[in-house]
Amino acid sequence: MDNTILTVDDLHLTMQGKKILRGVKMDIWAGHIHAIIGPNGAGKSTLVSAIMGLPGYKPEQGKICFLNKNITNLPVFERAQRGLTLAWQEPARYEGLSVEKFILAGAKDKCRKQAEEVLEIVGLESNKYLNRAIDKTLSGGERKRIELASIIAMEPKLILLDEPDSGIDIDALQKIFSLLQSLKQKNITIVVITHSLSVLNQADHAFLMCCGKVLDKGNVDRIASYFKNKCIPCNHDRLVVLSSEAVT
Question: How far apart are CA 131 and CA 68, in angstroms?
Fold first, then answer.
């Protein structure tokens, strides 16, 4: 396709003497939802951390291009300025900071109305949340939606989501699903890491990773078959096992 927004080319990364990424290649298309699946230890979270440029995740080989520019050596803040952002598996709480201040910290438009609008987008009533502190009184689902609200306020071009279904209930997950589709309609590109078949089904395209490589890619129906089959033939020195316990 000619609308590639992000390219990962032959990415290799070693951490604490252990090879984590082994020549990852991936093209991400603009305006689509892409899913990355695979067993624990496949390198999925390491990959998105390297794409975001987090400290300690600098590849020793390969290239990352975003919007046709090589960003492999750029720091996190410059990648964020270009429209790339990451939502954590476990959102930071920033104890004592108000929801409004948290949202507006990275927002392009730093007015209260912007904070109100993005909270409404993620399904939270602004009059009930703006002045609340980000702390343990918020549920996991509320924290995830507040983090997504802060990301929307940044007006990103591509969002990396690490297991958005982790630690939240079914109602909150359905709201996040609705939000993903809404972001897609705004032509925001999404890359989501997941162990969940229900999350995978929200995507347009998927990648299967194992042992630090992309083993397969394609439409969601075909990639989803790996959940059911639990393993596929491959040229690694061990079987690729996708635990049935991960399917929800």
Answer: 40
Number of Cβ within 10 Å of residue 57's Cβ equals: 19
Instruction: Determine contact, residues 227/246, Cβ cutoff 8 Å.
Output: yes
Angle (nearest 5°) at CA 101 between 100 and 107: 90
Residues of the chain with pLDDT under 50: 238-248
Q: How many CB atoms lie within 10 A of CB 63?
A: 14
In three-state form (DSSP H/G/I as H, E/B as E, the rest C), the secondary structure along the chain is: CCCEEEEEEEEEEEECCEEEEEEEEEEEECCCEEEEECCCCCCHHHHHHHHHCCCCCCCCEEEEEECCEECCCCCHHHHHHCCEEEECCCCCCCCCCEHHHHHHHCCCCCCHHHHHHHHHHCCCCHHHHCCCECCCCCCHHHHHHHHHHHHHHCCCCEEEEECCCCCCCHHHHHHHHHHHHHHHHCCCEEEEECCCHHHHCCCCEEEEEECCEEEEEECHHHHHHHHHHCEECCCCCCCEECCHHHCC
Distance CA 138, CA 159 (A): 23
CA atoms within 13 A on the CB side of 242: 24
pLDDT at position 33: 96
pLDDT at 63: 97
- The CA–CA distances, whole Å, from 182 to 2, 193, 200, 201 equal 23, 19, 16, 15
Q: How far apart are CA 153 and CA 156, in angstroms?
A: 8
Question: How many CB atoms within 10 Å of residue 169?
Answer: 11
